[in-house]
């Protein structure tokens, strides 16, 4: 039997051939040779999860519609144009920021607030509800200063307020609400100690509309004692543990076994005690939380009805000043575009249907009990901030499981008799066209050769030859895994922690090339040295994502390959860590404008530098860099080389930890080599950064 070589092997070298002379290209996602942006929009479900804020434009890029359904055609913002302006070097007129990048759209944030308020206003008017809606934003969803300040500003007319759940959060909420509507609520939730309650009472003294919500029964004594000491008449709310809950992941925070809230027994005791100390008139609000991502209006109505009954009972027990029912969070968003209530990824209702269900449930109970309609408050954080933030990152390379190399030989006579026997069985199975047996013998041949390699009787060249042959065979018979691994310049743990922590899925889509048919499928592997640092689950129940081909240089014919993660504006930034010391991404704030580009970058901040993340772990970058400079000086070399190394170190400490896609300079590598130090970076040739200031850089925007 002739030996088989993988270098320019003729087709008839393997009789009954099924092995091609050249590698098979990736299997196309869709068979049609024609493609369009509308087909990409359907493939990635953009019109499902993205409406009315994201669409695929005629150029094949993702566009942002900053004013939702009210966006005019000329107001669309092309994401690729934003990325270009932000990442282009300053010498080319760009901002010179490094990816990954979070792009915030305050116009979208404003539209979400307007739509939420409008939905409740419409439901209130339609049902002749005799009070109003007045929401709060739970700052835990995203505590970014500019997001919170925007919400307070955008919510001035509608008296939109804030909710805090910790001492730092109440401090930032108090500060921001000093510029807000005087009637806006400051709802104080979470576990409380004396300091927390004192801060809340201080807010009341500062004429903020502060409500202290009792989550635990023992908090009542603190409120009573401290309010007397500070001479403040508090506004008190109760959080109730409702019996209503939903069965999804987020429902675990509700029901009788929920983490927060008072049982019926505890509520009765609290009301009695407030009456005994003459403070029952301080009780004004009832709060509850069914759980995040409430899947249906049926469940919502059930919970709100139970809470409304409890609200009326509090009034019957003597709490005559009750005036607010706080329905908590739970207003869900459609992560997968399915508009289904069957999973945690979607919801089976619109904003308008949600508001209608809430208003109707409260009205029916209150009318039945002849109770005045209360103010309706909600804490809809996820629904407010998720859409306005987009995470942009790039794929740097793509690899496949089975290689078909053209420079590795399989020379049969160099292998053991047993391995040759396995090859003969593979050869005969191929002649018969028995693909199932081919796979069996491929596996047998590989296992035998791996064992021989472990025993030292097979060289690595021979092992590579077997791997190449087997990969070629498996791919030729169509049994290879067509899914590629796209290596992305990102940390899952930093930027998408909910995927790792609770299997939360987000829409991930190429933000360009949508006019082209994606011919590959891939999973995403991040930069961290952790096997969990990958994304292998996608919306729609998919285990891989349709993607475009990349060239050997880690790009494509159009340049770099950019992907976007959408609907991640809530929680991801606050929950992200610094695993492997990859810090937070760069952030830009983009407003729609009537200028030639259609947008304006009003704020741009470079992501956390290496010094920032080192400092977060108690290291001292200034001392570290001096130590390295001193060691470099011991290696000899002239003064110019010393300056280059110092500049290199300065730049590395001040640069983001992610991969730089720019080319390094040979001059610096040579200089460092003369010092006996193995290091290179491109910035030193341009002067580097030797300021000694290692931290985030705020990019000024004119």
TrEMBL record:
<feature type="active site" description="Proton donor">
    <location>
        <position position="529"/>
    </location>
</feature>
<keyword id="KW-0745">Spermidine biosynthesis</keyword>
<comment type="similarity">
    <text>Belongs to the Orn/Lys/Arg decarboxylase class-II family. SpeA subfamily.</text>
</comment>
<keyword id="KW-0661">Putrescine biosynthesis</keyword>
<dbReference type="Pfam" id="PF02784">
    <property type="entry name" value="Orn_Arg_deC_N"/>
</dbReference>
<dbReference type="GO" id="GO:0008792">
    <property type="term" value="F:arginine decarboxylase activity"/>
</dbReference>
<dbReference type="InterPro" id="IPR022653">
    <property type="entry name" value="De-COase2_pyr-phos_BS"/>
</dbReference>
<dbReference type="GO" id="GO:0009409">
    <property type="term" value="P:response to cold"/>
</dbReference>
<feature type="domain" description="Orn/DAP/Arg decarboxylase 2 N-terminal">
    <location>
        <begin position="132"/>
        <end position="386"/>
    </location>
</feature>
<dbReference type="InterPro" id="IPR002985">
    <property type="entry name" value="Arg_decrbxlase"/>
</dbReference>
<dbReference type="InterPro" id="IPR000183">
    <property type="entry name" value="Orn/DAP/Arg_de-COase"/>
</dbReference>
<dbReference type="InterPro" id="IPR009006">
    <property type="entry name" value="Ala_racemase/Decarboxylase_C"/>
</dbReference>
<dbReference type="InterPro" id="IPR022644">
    <property type="entry name" value="De-COase2_N"/>
</dbReference>
<feature type="modified residue" description="N6-(pyridoxal phosphate)lysine">
    <location>
        <position position="140"/>
    </location>
</feature>
<dbReference type="GO" id="GO:0042803">
    <property type="term" value="F:protein homodimerization activity"/>
</dbReference>
<protein>
    <recommendedName>
        <fullName>Arginine decarboxylase</fullName>
        <ecNumber>4.1.1.19</ecNumber>
    </recommendedName>
</protein>
<keyword id="KW-0663">Pyridoxal phosphate</keyword>
<dbReference type="GO" id="GO:0006527">
    <property type="term" value="P:L-arginine catabolic process"/>
</dbReference>
<dbReference type="InterPro" id="IPR022657">
    <property type="entry name" value="De-COase2_CS"/>
</dbReference>
<keyword id="KW-0210">Decarboxylase</keyword>
<keyword id="KW-0460">Magnesium</keyword>
<dbReference type="GO" id="GO:0009446">
    <property type="term" value="P:putrescine biosynthetic process"/>
</dbReference>
<comment type="pathway">
    <text>Amine and polyamine biosynthesis; agmatine biosynthesis; agmatine from L-arginine: step 1/1.</text>
</comment>
<dbReference type="InterPro" id="IPR029066">
    <property type="entry name" value="PLP-binding_barrel"/>
</dbReference>
<dbReference type="GO" id="GO:0008295">
    <property type="term" value="P:spermidine biosynthetic process"/>
</dbReference>
<keyword id="KW-0456">Lyase</keyword>
């Amino acid at each position: 039997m002739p030996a088989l070589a993988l270098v320019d092997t003729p087709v008839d070298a393997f009789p009954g051939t099924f092995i091609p002379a050249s590698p098979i290209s990736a299997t196309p996602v869709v068979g049609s040779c024609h493609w369009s942006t509308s087909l990409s929009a359907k493939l990635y479900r953009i019109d499902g999860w993205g409406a009315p804020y994201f669409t695929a434009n005629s150029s094949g890029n993702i566009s942002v519609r900053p004013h939702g359904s009210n966006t005019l055609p000329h107001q669309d913002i092309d994401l690729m144009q934003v990325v270009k302006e932000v990442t282009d070097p300053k010498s080319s007129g760009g901002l010179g920021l490094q990816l990954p990048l979070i792009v915030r759209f305050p116009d979208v944030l404003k539209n979400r607030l307007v739509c939420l308020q409008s939905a409740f206003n419409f439901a209130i008017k339609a049902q002749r509800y005799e009070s109003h809606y007045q929401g709060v934003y739970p700052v835990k969803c995203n505590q970014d200063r500019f997001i919170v300040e925007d919400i307070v500003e955008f919510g001035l007319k509608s008296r939109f307020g804030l909710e805090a759940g910790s001492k730092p959060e109440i401090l930032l909420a108090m500060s921001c609400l000093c510029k807000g509507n005087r009637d806006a609520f400051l709802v104080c939730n979470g576990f409380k100690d004396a300091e927390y309650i004192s801060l809340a009472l201080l807010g009341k003294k500062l004429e903020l509309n502060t409500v202290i919500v009792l989550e635990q029964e023992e908090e009542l004594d603190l409120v009573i004692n401290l309010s007397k000491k500070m001479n403040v008449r508090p506004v008190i709310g109760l959080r109730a543990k409702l019996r209503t809950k939903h069965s999804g992941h987020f429902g675990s925070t509700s029901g009788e076994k929920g983490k927060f809230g008072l049982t019926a027994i505890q509520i009765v005791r609290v009301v009695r005690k407030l009456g005994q100390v003459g403070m029952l008139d301080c009780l004004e609000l009832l709060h509850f939380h069914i759980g995040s991502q409430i899947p249906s209006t049926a469940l919502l109505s059930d919970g709100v009805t139970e809470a409304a009954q409890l609200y009326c009972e509090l009034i019957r027990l003597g709490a005559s000043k009750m005036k607010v029912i706080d329905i908590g969070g739970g207003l869900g968003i459609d992560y997968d575009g399915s508009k289904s209530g069957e999973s945690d990824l979607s919801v089976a209702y619109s904003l308008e249907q949600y508001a209608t269900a809430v208003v109707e449930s409260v009205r029916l109970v209150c009318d039945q009990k002849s109770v005045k309609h209360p103010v309706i408050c909600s804490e809809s954080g996820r629904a407010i901030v998720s859409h306005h933030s987009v995470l942009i990152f790039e794929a740097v390379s793509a690899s496949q499981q089975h290689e078909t190399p053209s420079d590795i030989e399989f020379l049969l006579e160099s292998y053991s008799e047993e391995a040759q026997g396995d090859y003969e069985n593979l050869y005969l199975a191929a002649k018969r066209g028995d693909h199932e047996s081919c796979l069996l013998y491929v596996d047998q041949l590989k296992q035998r050769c791996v064992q021989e390699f472990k025993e030292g009787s097979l060289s690595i060249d021979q092992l590579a030859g077997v791997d190449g042959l087997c990969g070629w065979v498996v791919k030729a018979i169509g049994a290879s895994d067509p899914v590629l691994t796209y290596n992305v310049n990102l940390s899952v743990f930093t930027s998408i922690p909910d995927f790792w922590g609770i299997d939360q899925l987000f829409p991930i889509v190429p933000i360009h090339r949508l006019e082209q048919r994606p011919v590959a499928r891939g999973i995403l592997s991040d930069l961290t040295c952790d096997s969990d640092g990958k994304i292998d689950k996608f919306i729609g129940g998919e285990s891989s994502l349709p993607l475009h081909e990349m060239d050997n240089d880690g790009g494509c014919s159009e340049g770099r390959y950019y992907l976007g993660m959408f609907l991640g504006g809530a929680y991801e930034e606050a929950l992200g860590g610094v695993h492997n010391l990859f810090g937070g991404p760069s952030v830009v704030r983009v407003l729609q404008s009537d200028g030639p580009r259609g947008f304006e970058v009003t704020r741009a901040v470079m992501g956390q530098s290496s010094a920032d993340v080192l400092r977060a772990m108690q290291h001292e970058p200034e001392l570290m860099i001096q130590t390295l400079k001193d060691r470099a000086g011991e290696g000899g070399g002239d003064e110019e080389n010393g300056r280059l190394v110092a500049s290199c170190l300065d730049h590395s400490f001040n640069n983001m930890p992610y991969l730089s896609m720019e080319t390094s300079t040979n001059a610096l590598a040579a200089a460092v080599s003369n010092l006996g130090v193995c290091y290179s970076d491109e910035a030193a040739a341009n002067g580097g950064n030797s300021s000694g200031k290692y931290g985030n850089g705020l990019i000024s925007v004119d």
